Amino acid sequence: MRFPLPLVIFSILLIFFPLDSFSRRTPFFEILIRSLPISDGGEDIGGEDVGSSSTDAYCNSWMYSVETNNIGTWATIPIICQSFVEDYMNGPRYLSDSKVVASYSLAFAKDVFIGGGKDAWIFDADETLISNLQYYAENGYGSEIFNETKWNEWVVLSAATALPASLELYNDLKSLGFKIMILTGRGEGQRELTQKNLNNAGYSGWEKLILRGEGDGGKTAVMYKSEKRAMLESEGYTIHGSSGDQWSDLSGSPTAKRSFKLPNPMYYIA
Amino acid sequence: MRFPLPLVIFSILLIFFPLDSFSRRTPFFEILIRSLPISDGGEDIGGEDVGSSSTDAYCNSWMYSVETNNIGTWATIPIICQSFVEDYMNGPRYLSDSKVVASYSLAFAKDVFIGGGKDAWIFDADETLISNLQYYAENGYGSEIFNETKWNEWVVLSAATALPASLELYNDLKSLGFKIMILTGRGEGQRELTQKNLNNAGYSGWEKLILRGEGDGGKTAVMYKSEKRAMLESEGYTIHGSSGDQWSDLSGSPTAKRSFKLPNPMYYIA
């Protein structure tokens, strides 16, 4: 098996500089926080003042930069934004944002000419079709470094729930005649659990459920997902739409004709 | 001169289906509005009720989809969101969102190794370096179809003001040693006026000011701007960063190493 040189270099670098060290190495959010009018003194950051309007203003703008992919790689949310993220995820705005994305997705889909059985729509799984909010609620809403052991224990429960706007869109697209491809960063080892969870959440009738195989181990999500889109195209599918909560679900070549970014202020996948 | 076939087909289609007809032809926002809990009855949409919390909720989510490029081509803002856009553009959130984008841009820029005089940063002009808010305030904040005559009269005034976070970033990047490229969709015919306006707003010392030339007439912004990035690379420049308020400022091949999307809920350029 051959590995591209940049990947080898990147992997070696990761040994010495694991991703989670970035947040420790670079006083990134500190720079930002100091540069922004979050507080007058400083002692009113955190605790009961987290919900103050200046913190909310900052966290709103931070989320703007998360969603527009301005931040680049990040490991955890700014600690002062934990309450903001909690409120967003549990409040009406997450539902409303997701619903509007689904509306635009469906409006586009209805104009697609369907024929020949090769019209595909790709969905990511986590935070796109199913919500792991319960897991993140128990683990700081993205303020804690990703813990693979805890995450795998959660996956075993198959307890992620459907995102309501996505379930409706999924069924509408199926009715329109799209072949649904679920393309997830989860590994083949979790295929049965993922199927079970998707079924539990109300999803059925997909064309393919694609998980990371043995050869996909070292790849970034962008590389892995781009390769799978290329594979689908080589099998004759036209990828009309792609829905994901991460830019790495959507970007890279080839892209779908239209890509739809769902909100997720809790975590980032490169 | 040769034109690629898709462009020719697109141009012919435009004769019969001008862009602004989309908003008339497709009851797009109507579909959305009906699908969302904006009002209980219907008679409370518009007028003094525009500022109601359900309209704001919808317009917030609409703006989420604008900024994440989920909407695709659009000609005007939803009329019920005019007050929302007015409040956003004139309020603290626009400043705060822009400031956070600039902070992330500068944090990235500070980690770039500068040497050899070919380290470039690209800025778009309108709604990136300079603000045409006065023009849009007088023309419905994006609720009216673009009027080229009125726009050109505004350009003659050279009265667009600096976006404060962008002016600071611009000067910081210049100090760091970046060569600043201003890449605008304005035409060569407006070169003098654009220079004058940029100077009036406090900008100086750019490396190149690139405007649409004669050969760029029929090109989309993505095509035109991608070609200019390719040209800069062929001249030996490394494009580290690119800042723009439109996705068409940033996407297309080649891209900058990092792209930064500034907010603009008022208009869309393909």
TrEMBL record, chains A, B:
Q: Where is the signal peptide?
A: 1-23
Q: Name one Pfam family in it.
A: Acid_phosphat_B
UniProt KW Signal keyword: yes
Q: Which domain of life is it from?
A: Eukaryota
Q: Which GO terms describe its molecular function?
A: acid phosphatase activity
Record keywords: Glycoprotein, Signal
Q: Name the PANTHER family on file.
A: ACID PHOSPHATASE-LIKE PROTEIN
State the NCBIfam families in the record: plant-AP (TIGR01675)
Q: Which family does it belong to?
A: Belongs to the APS1/VSP family.
Protein name in the entry: Acid phosphatase-like protein
Species, as recorded: Zostera marina
